[in-house]
Structure formats: structure tokens, C-alpha cells
Amino acid sequence: MRWNINKWLKLHIRGKLAIAFTGLSILPVLVVGLWGISYNVKSLRYIAINNLNHDVLTIREKLQAFIQGLEDNLFFIMNSSAFKHYLASPNNLNQSNSNEDEFLNELMHYARSKGIFYQIKLINKQGDEIFVIERQGNDYTIIPQSSLNVRGNSFYRYLATRIKPHTMTFIPVELISRDQQILIPAISCIYPVDRENFHGLFILQIYAQDFFKIIEEYRGHFFDSKLMLVNSEGFYLYHSKKKKEWNKLLASKDSLNLGTDYGLNFAQKTLNRGSISIHEIGQEILAATPIFNPQIGLNNSYILVKSVSKSEIFAPVHNFTRMFAALVGFFLLFSLFLSYLATQQFTGPIDKLKREAQVITQGNYQARVEVQTYDEIEELARQFNIMAESLEQREAEITRHREHLEQLVKERTRALENEKDKLRVILDNVPSGFLLLDCDLKIVAASAALQPITGKSITDILGQSCHEVIGNEHLCSACPTENTFRSGRTKTQVIHLQNGEDDRYLEFTAIPLKKNGQVEHVLEIITDITERKRLQDRLIHSEKLAVTGEMAAVIAHEMRNSLTSVRMILQLFAENKKLADTDRDSLEVALDSLNRMEKVVHDLLQLARPAPMQKAPQKINEVIYDSLELARHQIERKGITLEINVADELPEVEIDREHIKEALMNLILNASQAIENQGKIQITCKKRRLPFNLRTLGEVRVLEDNHEGIGVKEVFIKKGTQVVQIEVKDNGCGIPKKYFNRIFDPFFTTKINGTGLGLSFVKRVVNEHGGVIVVQSKVGEGSSFTIYLPVNNHE
Fold this sequence. Notes:
By secondary structure, this protein is an alpha+beta fold. It has six domains: 13-76 and 314-362, no CATH class; 80-211, PAS domain (Beta-Lactamase); 222-310, Beta-Lactamase; 430-528, PAS domain (Beta-Lactamase); 534-606; 613-790, 2-Layer Sandwich (Heat Shock Protein 90). The chain is built from 20 helices and 25 strands. The two termini are 84 Å apart.
């Protein structure tokens, strides 16, 4: 709804023009001026805050550099050879010697070069002074041993128990001169000395006024500002506008502190904050920052606060405001004068033009407007006359063009629909799915082939993110679409999806669609390559199996012949009755080693030419207990706790009893070997319906060209199948995740004396029974091997 000024003010055109001229003159000035004021206020405030930040950070850096320099000097002094010789000297506490003279002379030279110390002294852990270098007059002197305090100072004994090793402590103190006449404000920098033959404190007493000079020397960006140094309780140690001696400030701490000056709320926020902060309180802007680590102040932190008056910051704004008010007044008077002159010339011709224009608007295209002003208004009247002559012709021409355009639009729309239908048929019948994604990775369009891949209808996925469609909560790592938007190049990636039931492999190809050189959309082609991936894995596994079996057969054949000869020779030696006892013991050790080697040969032959399975219905719990008996000796020898949880009512399973027993024994022995000290092995067995699909590539007996042999075949247990689940779990060292894909490979082992054939044998036996073995492990927490054996149809 338009705002009509005539409802409020019955104005003629002259009044409206006057308002327009005045508004056009004044409004830009007002807008620019107000914007300038606002901008200046913001700019000055921003600059002031930055300058405050810079000032307090600069002072903080100077203070920290000062303390760091002292700490470096102390570290250098305490690690100097003179100090080490001084502490090592047996009589450094009682009489002068060359080591003491050398070290104290170095300290005297250091004190004179700095000129900021009142005292430098060393105190033992009982609080007794070992030496004191003190400023007296304009020079430093070593206090005689007879004048040292050797009665123990409780304050320093307390500090010796509180100060952390290798940490300098910063404490404001008030010292009394040796003549008991003068109070000396100072800063104690204390560093613990912890040596084999000495434990105590190294203390530098710095004049407080020299320390505060670091704050006073830096003037910063503001002429009239306040600098304050407060402790964690809010009491002033230094105030640039008030008393500068920290001891006098602390004496009046109840009435002169950060809380009374700026409020408890500000004090609490400032003292509890661990970084620089900016506050506006009344007519002041304050910046506060902690200057030291809390450990340096014996759990008492120190805050540096700088305050600047707003009147100093915003003084230019007040001057600009006064100048702006004068400028607005001038423009107001000048615009009123110009508007009066202009309206005199406008109103007459416009009234006449209005009357003639009303006649033309009523449809009388023969009417003419006659105005003689020799300016734009006369030109406007002439254009009105031309318009009236051409309106009828233009109206007819527009009608013809409209009808022609409507026909063209219908034809083009029909053609586009046909092309769209053709493209849709092509895309919907291609096995791969197509997605059109915008720069926010939202789906703009999709093909029908995506429905079997994603399990969702096309209408449901429009507007969703691409990773949500494939079931990921977050963006895929190294997302090809995101990389294509960023690089402008085609990217391809294969993603492995695990949805709890079945694994799938999807190939994503992202193709950039550019407009004016910029990637506007990305066409993502999604292809399900799960079967291709499985065929590749099966081929790789088959080749690996063939090479491994051939190698194992050759090695076993060569080793068995040699071992047979060695055994015969050793047995002949054993039959010699004249053989010494020590030689007979050595011979038995050799025979034991030979037995182990023959066991390895047997395992290699089993790998190359495994014995056929003799399956028969068996009670699986009996097989489990038989396996435990075979491994019980090693379990009891290592003191391992054994927990067995086998269900009573288990169905018979058609298995090869000996092979399954040996496989379970291998798992139990592996679990015991993974436990270094006393641990626990849990064995559970139960019947259940499989809640998910299980799939693996396994070595199974196959019939090919009427010959039976070992080949690679996919073992698949469908969701809902009744299985017997056997789990062997330990709390040993665990298996790194990077080995999960290799632990069932022949000859792969992480044990020093292992052959790498045990788990390979276990997996082959389980696979030949149509079962699947699954491993779960975490380093430091243990491993779990779970066997799933399908139950026979007759239960």
C-alpha cells in the first residue's frame, strides 16, 4: 500500500516540489553525516581497542622478557663451573676459599652490570643464609659470614616446600635494611637449587621501582591513560595515577582495589580470565591480560590493566558532529530557496499538460496537447501526440506478435519434452545411477537406476545430500564431488559400504559441468562394482593360494627327506650304550628339535595337500572340551584363568571332529601365547540365528575336471541361518588393525618363533565346513576369534 502524503497534508504540487527539493538536498547530507559519525565511532573504538590490545601485550611481552632474562641468567649462573665448584667445596659454609671467591666475584660483576638488585643471596633448606651480596650506597658488597642470618627463616623454609622444581617464583616483598631503619619495596625472584650436596633457594631481590620502570617506560598510543598491576585478589601492586609503591597500595587495599574502582563483577571476570579481554565501564575502556604463568606467582596470578577515557578517544567525533549540524542548517535554507524558484516555473505548464493528457487517456487519440515552454515539458507534450497517433497501430502489431510467439512456445515446449523423454529413457536404462549435484552437494536430479542402488525412490532423494543417500551421516572422506568442484577436473573414487548385512563397493565418478569457466554443477555417476570387486579378490586369493601351496610342497619334500636322514643318524647314536650322559641329554634336545621341525613339515604338507574332511554329526561341546584338554597344560603353566560358557542344549553339527578340534586348540594356544602374565581366556558356545549376512573368500575342496582339489570359493551364510557360534576371547596384547587382512595368510606371523600356519589352518578348516571366522581385536585390550558354523537341517 502506497503512502499518500495528501491524506495528512493537503499540498499542491508546489509544496510537494518544495519537499522533494529539500529532501533531496538534506537526506544525502543526513545519511552521509550520520553514517560518518557512526563509522567514526566504530573506527575509533576499533582502533582504540587494537591500540589497547597492542599496549598491554607489548608491556606484557616486556615483563615476560624481563623475567625470562632473569631466569636465563639464573640458569646460567647455577650451571656455571664456579657455582658447581662452590657447592662442591667442603668448607664453603665456614671459611673463604678460591672457589667461593671466584663465584662471588662473578656474582658481584653480574649485580653491578644490572644495577637493579638490592640483594643476591643463597639460602639452604633450613632457611640459613649461605652468602648475601647487598647493595650499600652506590656499590655492592659481600656481607661477612658473621652478619649472616643462620638461625633459620621460617618464610624461606615455607617457600622451599612450596616451590616446584625448575620453576622461578615471583613474589612481591617488603624488606628491612640491615640497620632496621628503612623499608625497601622489592620483588623476590626465587629459584630452587636441588643438587646432590645442597638443597636450597637462589634469591634475587629486585628493587620494585626498577621493575615498575618496565611498565612506565612504554607510553603506548594514549596520552592520558591509566596502567594498573593487580594480583589475583584484585589488590593493586602498581597504579600510574595513584600511589606507585606497591607496599603502600597494599596497605590501603580495602579501599583502593580493582573491585572498589570498577565493580566486583568486572574484577571477578578479569581475574578469572586466562587471556586478554576488553571491557567498557562507564566512560572508560579497559584492556586486561594475565602477564605471568600462575606457577610463577606461587598460585597467585598477576593481571595488567590499562584504561583509556572515552572522551579522549571520541573527541574527533564531537568536532565532526558540530560541523555536521552547521552544514545541515546551511543546506536546508539553500534548498528551500531553490525549491521556491523552481516551482514557479513548473506548476503552470504542468497543469495544462495534465488537462490535455486526461483527454488522451479517455481514448480520444485525435486529441493534441499544445504547450509552449521551450523545454522538456514541451517535448513531453509532443511525445504524447506521437503516442496517440501510433497507439492503435502498435496495439494491432502487438496482438499479431503475441499470437505468433504463443505458437512458437508451444512447438518448442513439445520438442523439449520429447528430448527430455528420450534422455530420461537412456539414463533410466543405464546400469549406473546418475546424480546432478549443486555446489552445496544437494541432489538436483537423479536417474531411476539409483533406486536399486540406494533403496530409495527418486522423489525421496531429491534435495538431499549425496552422502545421505548412500547411508553416511557425514561427508565421505576425499569426496570426489567436492574435489571436482574445487579442482574443476573429473574425479573417481571407490567407496566401501558396510550396512550391517552385506558389504558393497560403489564407484563414484564426478564430472564437472561448467558455465563461463566455472563449475556450476557436477554429474555424479554411481556404479555398483561389488561383484567385480569380489571376482578380483577371488582371483588374487586363488593366485596366492596356488603359489603358497606349490612353495609349501617343494619345501616340505626337500626338508622331509633331509630330516629322515638326520633322525636315522641320531637314533643310531642314541642306541650306543657307551654314550655319556651329557651327550645323551644333548641328543634328546636334538631329537626334540627334530620333532618340531617334522611338525612344521607336516603343517606345510597339510597346506599344500590337505587331508580330506571326514564329516559326521558331532556334539560340538564335546569337541570343545577335548581341545581344552590338549591345551590345558600350557594354560595352567602360565597361571591363566579359564572361563567356559558352553550351552547345554546344542544341536549336533556335521563336522570333521579331528580337524575342528585341532583348529580350536590352535585358537586356544594362540590366546594363551598372547597373554604375557596372568590373564583370562573366555570360551563361549551357543546356538543363534544369524542377524546379518556373512561372506568371505575361503580355501575349500572343489571338484574340477573330475579331480578333487583345494580352490578359492566364496563362503556365504545368509541372514537368519541357524548357526553354532564359538568364541575364543583373551585379554592379551591384542592385534594391530593393520594386520587384520593378513593374519589368516599362510606364513604370516607376528611371533618370533611362529610359522604363520596356525590361523591359516583354522580358517581353511572353518571354510571347508561352510563356516566363517571373524576376528575383533584392540591393542592392549585383547582379541576375540568367533567361528560361525551352520547347523544341519535336521536338529
